[in-house]
């Protein structure tokens, strides 16, 4: 690429971190497209328009899951005529996207090693998923140093999303020896290293978890996701994706445990200790997830392929029960 657009996470841009991270000769890359958390379709299109105006032929992405997905959408729309919504689903592109280079600033989504992009548009029952070969970044630079000054809560949410990706790969129906190898190593790494990484910001532990989050995505990207992500797919729930996963993970793990291999049971049995060490209750706070959100979660999961991919079949009653166990307020009739 000779004329990249730079897509950067809003929080990083605001904190002035980019100026510290970028070498001088790249500091003036334009356009610099700032990505908010969960960008809307309109914001994504504005990014596309900016990149087109500048004649860009590639995208450099610095940020977490939202920025990576926005950057991938821009790379697609620079060479495909429609708005990104035209490509929802599997392999609908006319042309291979322009190349992307990705520098993740969270140990979380693992989107830097994935051909999938996810957008959350209000008013829809489920999220928008675009799967397209060539959307995976050509290069992903995994640098744990970038996590040293990450604020605690977003780092916790991102990390618990990655832990959930690893677990879902272990209880997905489509798992195999190769995905097991990736998911086991990713989960083991988080169980061992997440507390030191988040509490002490130990550089080696930070590097371990950023690599483990990519491994977790390589695993779940091949197995497909499962029950946690089936419920956690409603764009109108005003809670962060990783936060919700962190709140429902342990209940879903207990639900799936009887159908899992003994080796994997031993791994998920270590989750409560990890939650304790990262000082996270692992449940919704009182009143935080009310009946309306619970309905959105269960509605979104109905007919969702992720729910069908879960090793243990679940009824709506099971989903209500799992959300109740996770601290959500569930209507008495549910
Ligand atoms: Fe996720």
Quick synopsis:
By secondary structure, the protein is α/β, with parallel strands linked by helices.
What is the element layout, followed by pairings?
Elements: E1 4-9, H1 10-14, H2 17-21, E2 32-35, H3 41-53, E3 58-63, H4 65-77, E4 89-90, E5 100-104, E6 116-119, E7 128-131, E8 139-140, H5 152-170, H6 177-200, H7 203-223, H8 227-231, H9 241-256, H10 262-268, H11 271-277, H12 291-301, H13 305-308, H14 316-325
Parallel strand pairs: 1-2, 1-3, 3-5, 4-7, 5-8
Antiparallel strand pairs: 6-7
Helix pairs in contact: 3-4, 5-6, 5-7, 5-9, 6-7, 6-11
Bound molecules: fe (ii) ion (FE2).
The site of fe (ii) ion (FE2) has 5 residues, from α5 and α9.
Number of domains: 2
Give the averaged pLDDT, no decimals: 95
The helix/strand order is: EHHEHEHEEEEEHHHHHHHHHH
Order of the strands making up the biggest sheet:
2-1-3-5-8
Distance between the ends:
54 Å
Small-molecule components bound = fe (ii) ion
The H-level CATH homologous superfamily of the largest domain, spelled out, is Dehydroquinate synthase-like - alpha domain
Taking all Cα atoms into account, the compactness measure Rg is 19 Å
Task: Determine the fraction of residues in helical runs and give it as a percent range.
Answer: 40-55%
Briefly, what CATH class of the largest domain?
Mainly Alpha
CATH architectural name of the largest domain: Up-down Bundle
- Secondary structure class reads alpha/beta
What proportion strand?
A: 5-15%
How many E strands? 8
